[in-house]
Write a structure and sequence with these properties.
Number of helices: 6
Structural class: alpha/beta
Order of helices and strands: EHEEHEHHEEHEHEEE
Largest sheet: 10 strands, mixed
Shape: globular
Length: 198
């Protein structure tokens, strides 16, 4: 199903439909402040496995991250945040950054990497944040497989390509073509592991 959401003022009825789908173990394609992502409820194991099958990756090796509503939401899924780290997160979020942080006990086992870390994001995107607010906890996010730029920026193309693999493609308009910058905050100093020029 292709479901349109207004980018600045998402229709509450459509937001509710998408969230019900997530709670039922559905998989969606949805816009973020970078590229469109594959998403599901972080507590729906079968949905996480479906995303890994679409991407043809092993869940233990998949680079999956969470999209959180805000910093206090994000802080539930990582171990204690030091003052310098909090300042760093506050400076860059919401924004096009994924921060690799030590995973807390709240993170489902299937999603923790071997190093016990998790990628966390707070996107500057009204649709993504409306979905999270209605759901009440983060949405899993993973990049879409695709070679052509249209594969992950044009909702109609994504619908044509993935309609048999996902439950809903959320059309929030043409998406960005640049992925998030990744910052690893698990060591003594933050390290940028994927830098993206905007």
């Amino acid at each position: 199903m292709l479901l349109h959401l207004h980018p600045d003022n998402p229709q509450p009825r459509n937001v509710k439909t998408i969230v019900e789908c997530l709670l039922d173990g559905g998989v969606i394609i949805y816009p973020t402040d970078t590229i469109y992502g594959l998403g599901c409820d972080i507590f729906q194991h079968k949905a996480i496995e479906r995303i890994c099958r679409i991407k043809q990756v092993d869940p233990a090796k998949a680079q999956l991250s969470f999209i959180c509503y805000d910093l206090s939401d994000l802080s539930s899924y990582t171990k204690s945040i030091s003052t310098p780290l909090y300042r760093l997160l506050k400076t860059y979020l919401p924004g096009p950054y994924t921060f690799i942080l030590p995973a807390s006990k709240q993170v489902p086992k299937i999603l923790k990497s071997k190093k016990d870390t998790i990628g966390l994001r707070v996107p500057d995107n009204i649709i993504a944040r409306s979905l999270i607010r209605e759901l009440g906890h983060p949405i899993l996010s993973s990049s879409l497989p695709g070679d052509m730029i249209e594969d992950y920026t044009d909702p109609e193309m994504m619908h044509e390509k993935f309609e048999n693999l996902v439950d809903i493609v959320v059309d929030g308009g043409i998406g960005g073509a640049i992925p998030s910058t990744i910052v690893d905050c698990t060591g003594d100093e933050p390290v940028v592991t994927r830098k993206v020029d905007r």
